[in-house]
Amino acid sequence: MSKTVREIAELYTSYFKGKGHTIVPSSSLIPKGDPTLLFTTAGMVQFKPLFTGAVELPYTRAASVQKCVRTTDLEVVGKTERHCTFFEMLGNFSFGDYFKKEAIEYALDFSLNHLHIPKDKIWVTIYLDDDEAKKIWMDQGVPEERIVRLGKKDNFWGPAGDSGACGPCSELYLDRGPEKGGPNCGNNPDCKPGCDCDRYLEYWNLVFNQFNQTVSGELLPLKQTGIDTGSGLERVAMLLQEVDSVYDTDELKSIIRKIEELSGKTYDESTKQSFRVITDHSRSVFFSLGDGIYPDRTGRGYVIRRLIRRASLFARKLGIHEPFLFKLIPTLRDLYSVRYPELKDKAKDIESILKKEEELFLHTLEVGLEELESLLGHLSENQQTVVTGKEGFRLYSTYGFPREMTKELVEDRGFSFDDKGFELELEKDRDLSRASWKGKKVQYLTGLTATPELKTEFLGYTEAKSSAKILYLFVDGKSVTSAKQGEEAVVVLDKTPFYAEGGGQIGDWGYLKKEGFQFQVQDTQKENETFLHLGMILKGTISVGENLEAEIDTSRRQNLANHHSGTHLLNGALRRILGTHVAQKGSIVSSDYLRFDFSHPKALSEEEIISIEKDVNEAVNAKIPVNTEVLDIEAAKKSGALSMFDEKYGNLVRVISMGDKSKEFCGGTHVSNTKEIGYFAIIKEGSPGAGNRRVEAICGDSVIEYFLSEFQTIAAKVETHNLSAKETFGDLKEFGITTVVPAPEDLQNRFAKEGNSTVLFLRKLREDLERELEEKSSALFKAKKKKEQLQFQMNPELVDGLLKKAHSLAKGKVVTEVFSSVDAKSLKDLADSLKAKEPEILCLFGSSDGDVSTLVFMCNKVLNERGIHCGDLLKETLVLLDGKGGGRPDMAQGGGKKPESLQAALEFALELSKKKLG
């Protein structure tokens, strides 16, 4: 029965291909067009539009091996035998083709004749009232005693996300024998699937899609039924290889062997949790980075950062104190590039990104853990059991510990964590800005003058780290001789690689370190010739006169250099395209984006923006060397270098040249060649004040991430639109979006192959899609309104229902009704239908649409002769709605406000009518 993971996957796809299924490659871990999901969590995610009928069916049956990430059970990964955050899911799907009978037949046939699972070991579960599924299983030879009914929690699946296809399901279980039942269930005859013990293990779920769940939770019948099955590849391998854990299957075991080799530790009972966490998380990170999900502070990126940090923490338990996960990438590449060949070429980049992220965290991990130990020790001494939100937030903001990781660490030690308090501290922090540091810098230097001994030698143009001596320390605005752990401080050095904010470029971050001491630099400012390193002492004590190592965050510096050099190219492009009247009025260069203010009398046209963007990207593509010269100021001016007219310059100035594209005075940090900038895209254009314009732009990988996000948003809108059109009209030829929204992997491949030219293509494609979406949505809205009005006017059930509820009076009948968003013409047509069936009826109709109210009163002449005048009746009623209107005795129409008073207004009109028709 034993088979390798690879063999099982190949058997599966081969079997279903033989059953007429199209074998569809795994989609990205970024769900296409589904904003309700962070990650692809199941095989059916990429097929959601096919189940709902939102798109044309390219096939009616399919099968796939889908890579998935789920983090709902993250805290138990490593503790149990089966939980993983990354897994591969085998799935076969039907879209209006076969249903329960064939799905059950295929699952049993594959289990018995291809996986060679003994038939007497297979149990199945069904939904409570699904007698149809029970009969099919019994017809296939599964005895009634091995069929178990379970409720909605276990046997009603879906949807994936907040909406989509869902329905009852039937699951296949393998009986692993009474010895797996433990002391309570080993010989218990009542033990069966649904029990919490390990005897019966589910390995395949067959979902019978019958409903489409809306975001509000409403279950609507699907236009076509479907089949969605899911079988965890690792779990099936565990059963067939007859091992106790998915981590003991062949592929995961090879990762564990590599960890043993790199760590020098043995995988055993005492180390297995650490080995399993590292094995699992390294897979999730490897595949996520491969799909362009990079570590970040929010969203998917935050999840990946959390996985990296959690794995680093468990690596430390194995005695590993340096970057480690990145060393597993070659093993992961060799294992998985057979099924996912695109990962082979991406492995080097994944390795590089992962190593940088590990280094970022390991800077503070050790001192953060020491701080946590100290905190827990203090709480124990004082017989306290709660880590407050304030304490948890300090571990997050100072040491980079994700909230969930801190919570897991403290709960493992028997303490509880104040989640609500943490959220309050986070909210407070959002209200603070880096300006608070800036406000302190003058205070810190009060009384100090620009003397030679206060001059800091700047090494950052050529060095990322250097040794340095402490000249001054400031704590709480006062000069001190020493400072200790936990204190916010300002450190003045004799020399530094840290760039101090200036020329629009924000200050560097990084660390000041020596044995037993670590200082986190959170900003770098400058006063005269003195550089101020502002931040927090993470570990140890330091004194004036001591020597240490100063090291900047090189990844952030590279992003700053990309955006600063991009700013220079932008300035040159603006002058070439708009004219030499363009003069810089201000700029901000951050690691995330650039902002550039310049003199220009009017807003930039779309054509001008595209031309500017194209000019900059051509300069990037040209791979122009960036030249730096230090010149006498007069010589610099004669060279034609641009300068800011209101900037103060010394006798010597630094001139940055990029071929014939740019030449400027500048003291900032730059790339050595324009190719390092990668990509350039303008994301916003506006005005900061009269006579000036402002452009915001991004460079490098930020451009890729920007377009990925933009197209995911558009894809979600397109899917919603097409679903709405399909539900209303069935045929999408007139109302469907015809332009294809690119998938995330398609965008990344395009960037990789075509480079900067992709930016212009994607900008144009995005605009075309948005324009088409707007036009089609407008046309769809009008068509839906027209259809609704037609259905409203010609609805015999509505007419009969209104006649039944009419008020019968001595001289006639009166019907009143309030509708939502129905136009006056439709109300008149409805009244005509009623009058045709009942000549002696007065119709008093109202409709609300937003903050507007509409009234239509109609009757036949027979009621006019009995005293009813619709025009007079309407005028009296409209007083309640602050409205206007009028009309003839037999028909009147008007409009007003106060839709909340519409019902009361019609009741008032009814009372007036009763006086006439009594």
Automatic annotation (TrEMBL):
Q: Which reactions does this protein catalyse?
A: tRNA(Ala) + L-alanine + ATP = L-alanyl-tRNA(Ala) + AMP + diphosphate
Q: Which SUPFAM superfamilies match?
A: Class II aaRS and biotin synthetases, Putative anticodon-binding domain of alanyl-tRNA synthetase (AlaRS), ThrRS/AlaRS common domain, Translation proteins
Q: Which UniProt keywords apply?
A: Aminoacyl-tRNA synthetase, ATP-binding, Coiled coil, Cytoplasm, Ligase, Metal-binding, Nucleotide-binding, Protein biosynthesis, RNA-binding, tRNA-binding, Zinc
Q: Name one GO biological process term.
A: alanyl-tRNA aminoacylation
Where is the protein situated, by its record's location annotation? Cytoplasm
An example GO CC term for this entry is:
cytosol
- Gene Ontology molecular function terms on file: alanine-tRNA ligase activity; aminoacyl-tRNA deacylase activity; ATP binding; tRNA binding; zinc ion binding
Instruction: Give EC number(s), comma-separated.
Output: 6.1.1.7
Q: What class of enzyme is it?
A: ligase
Known InterPro entries for this protein?
aa-tRNA-synth_II/BPL/LPL, Ala-tRNA-lgiase_IIc, Ala-tRNA-ligase_IIc_anticod-bd, Ala-tRNA-synth_IIc_core, Ala-tRNA-synth_IIc_N, Ala-tRNA_ligase, Ala_tRNA_ligase_euk/bac, DHHA1_dom
Primary location: cytoplasm
Positions with a binding annotation for Zn(2+): H564, H568, C666, H670
* Alanyl-transfer RNA synthetases family profile domain segment(s): 3-709
Cofactor stoichiometry and binding? Binds 1 zinc ion per subunit.
Q: Write down the required cofactor(s).
A: Zn(2+)
Which spans are transmembrane here?
A: none
What does the record say about domains?
Consists of three domains; the N-terminal catalytic domain, the editing domain and the C-terminal C-Ala domain. The editing domain removes incorrectly charged amino acids, while the C-Ala domain, along with tRNA(Ala), serves as a bridge to cooperatively bring together the editing and aminoacylation centers thus stimulating deacylation of misacylated tRNAs.
**Stored PANTHER family:** ALANINE--TRNA LIGASE, CYTOPLASMIC (PTHR11777:SF9), ALANYL-TRNA SYNTHETASE (PTHR11777)
For this entry, the protein name equals Alanine--tRNA ligase
Give the organism the record lists: Leptospira brenneri
